[in-house]
Amino acid sequence: MAVEGVPPFFTETIIFLSATVIAVPVAKRLGLGSVVGYLAAGAVIGPFGLGYLGSGEDVLHVAELGVVLLLFVIGLELDPQKLWRMKRDIFGLGAAQVVLTGLSLYALGYYLGFSREVSLVAGFGLALSSTAFALQILQERGQLSSPYGQRAFGILLFQDMSIVPLLAMIAILAPQEGPSTAIEIAGEVAVILGAIAGVILAGRYLASPLFSLLASSRAREIMLTAALLVAFGSAWIMHAVGLSMALGAFLAGVLLAESSFRHTLEADIEPFRSLLMGLFFVAVGMSLDFSILMDNLWLIVCGVLAVMLIKGVFLWGLTRGSGSSNSDAFRVAVTLPQGGEFAFVLFTAAIGAGILPFETANLLNSIVILTMLMTPLACLGLDWVAERLKQSGVENPVIETFEDAAPTVVVVGFGRFGMTVAQILTSEGLEVRAIDNRPDRIAYARKLGYKIYYGDATRADVLAAAGANKAALIAMCIENDRVMGRSIDLIRDGFPGALVFCRATDRAHALELTRKGVDYQIRETFESSLAFGKAALESLGTPLDRIAQIEEDVRRRDEERLQMQLTEGLFAGADRLHGVTPRRRATDETVIESKNRGE
Q: Which segments cross the bilayer (predicted)?
């Protein structure tokens, strides 16, 4: 569809945006999630729908960058130690799922009369789940950091890595495309290992100093450019040696997970990731051929049911057998039963190698897309069953809902004040996430063993990346009154569930914070001044009970003055500053009790 005088890409962009603006809110209102909305939008505007746009293949090449950015952001949330702790899920659970599901689907295909080669490609291609789809569901539900979410991610990570040997399988099935000598094979292996080593060395020793240098310039757009450069550069290196682009971006993200700039990088990339991921799912929806679907309806429907059932059974059984609760095993099973984007890659390679007929590939692609559409319905079905069990009074149901809570405390501003606050909170074992915008302060705090990240408190996306969206309390410990005020407004609008505790720089600032309705505020010098004065009185010989009486009176007068200043102005209540604290009468209960004890 083209309009005379208007560039084609401009018209296509308008069509893309219009379709998603309509479809995504409708899908979310129906409880199906945004991914289904994108897929439906693509199916409607694509060449097999209303025909507004041509083939989605060109769009898909650009949209695949969304998968790259998604894996980079996921890598930022996993430090190498955490990844090592997941090795059992990645190489044990993930490998078992791919092998068992792939062999089962291969056997089914061979039983139905397909050749061994076609059955192998189809079976192992359909054994792979959609990393983009499943992670989008987990993120929308806030479950990626939950135990079952981490197990699901471990399985997905192995599936991403398995695309390399599966593509090698294509080369073996088509010998003319593969290496013919051991020297060529050794050379390819050496190049791959060299590329991985290059990404690791650059991520560990060059990326953090680069971001530190750019952060000192306070140029946000340069930080954004550097973040995209790191993600896409790592993906390009891996792709150049025949590995997955997404895997390269994930590796770069993991290497930066312990960097001080983790949360800012995540916030900077998130808009691009979301937009490109939406574009990716629209392009996938455009590839759904309704004529093939209708001509082979029963075959495709049976294929969808077989893939989801076989994969779901293995996912449930393996996760249950490896120690997960029944609830978590069910949730993994309904989150990962769909086909994945790497199936498209594998089927395309098989077509090029002459292994997979084009018509068969279209059937398999239709099965993959429909399993994606069915997955949110499976999740909703599990939620419905869990809710019915809960309403019926069943105690300790085997199926729980997807709702979990993970409260944290975010400390904004990590100078001397914020550092002391963090020390008290971590002494109780609470999870503390600290952000600051001064690289020198961050470097100093990290040398002392604190985990602190670079971030701007006036950006809602940075606060969200730091955990404000699930924080029980946000401690505002920054010195700049204006910046704190802007940040509080953002928190009240975007994260209303969090308590807001503030450090006030002076009395006027304390009044401003009180008017903003913060949950707690304290002047940074008030308590230390009281302690100083009490120590002075004690050194001058004042009895301890008299010192306590004076402190109580000073606090009372200060609070009365603050209340007067809220309505009458900063200089109201000046008389509360002066006057001698009245001494308690001898008939006070404390004095009488002392006399009864003979003191």
A: 6-27, 34-53, 59-78, 90-112, 118-138, 150-173, 185-207, 243-261, 273-292, 298-318, 339-358, 364-386
